[in-house]
Amino acid sequence: VPSIKWELIRGKIASNLDIKVNEEDLLGFAKGIAYQQFAQYGMTNMDDETLTNYARRILEDKNYAGRIREDVANRKLFNSIKALVNLEAKTVSLDEFKALAQAEYLKYNGINKRRILCIGSRCVLSLYDRVIN
After folding, report:
1. Residue 14 vs residues 4, 75, 118, 119, 127: alpha-carbon distances, Å
2. Whole-structure pTM value
3. Rounded distance, CA 36 to CA 68, Å?
């Protein structure tokens, strides 16, 4: 159920921000995977044609291609969100973090029922409260 919620949220945000994953994005990501796999065996001087061919074979695997598509979509989504918001990096203690989180929770829950959605280590402010409840 959480993955379905995430897919709905991601789909809505992606359509609002006009985020699309194209074949060039997938091939570039797959080439990065191919490079890493070759590098594990000390083959760091592979030419672009070999990397491209290997990346295409990676993308032919339906299971692997689906995971790559999802990863690329998530990266593009979070990069777009990061470009839209002002991030302020700040080092705080655990107690300070709890106080900040509580204040944000009360601020958004009390006024307009927004939520902070955390998936893994990434958090976004959700405007789609009904989707994640």
Report:
1. 15, 11, 17, 16, 13
2. 0.62
3. 14
